[in-house]
Amino acid sequence: MPPKRVAIVTSSTRSPRLNPTITQYVYDVLTSDPIIPTNHNETLDTDPRHITLELLDLAKQSLPLYDESVIPARLPASDPTPHYCKAHTRAWSTVVRQYDAFIFVTPQYNWSIPASLKNALDYLFFEWKGKPAGIVSYGGRGGGKAADHLRGVLTGLRMRVVGTAPGLPVKFTGLPVGVLSEEEEMVRLDERDLVGWREAGVEGMMRNLGMELVCELDKV
Known about the structure:
By secondary structure, the chain is an alpha/beta fold. The protein is built from six helices and six strands. GO terms for molecular function: FMN binding; oxidoreductase activity.
């Protein structure tokens, strides 16, 4: 049995972005925890609890502002992909259907989530329905309001949202101003923020989130 695939989603599409850096941080924390049964080998894995964590960036999905003429919740539940009108929706549906669970890493914009994340979620329905989901938010005070809003949206999509939702206060890391090259777009974290998160127990919360997702996947 292949490992269950869990996508860690970069939810912001702005440039420059801190989001990919924090998504990578979440990935590194979860894959370094020996308690979470991750498997990143290409060999056959017979342990049903094993998961593979993968990065998924919304900026690379080429999704315009929602423009589907069909209602996702009214498509055939077993195979909605071919019934979308737009090629970009069919491509997005195919991507999402590959994953068994999701961890959404989101900044807080004006007490809510980025439009890019809401837009990507709204394109689909059955591709999300019933799958476990975790939330990691960040912002000046940790992004708790964005996490609350996102939990409501994911619940509306009938996802099984786990209880632990780490919030990362970003106090020292700043975004550069101006146009950056592609290599420079991934903003580096200020070490003081990393230390603050560790001291606040954020990494432990992330590991709890990871194990809650594993437990939810066991139920499928």
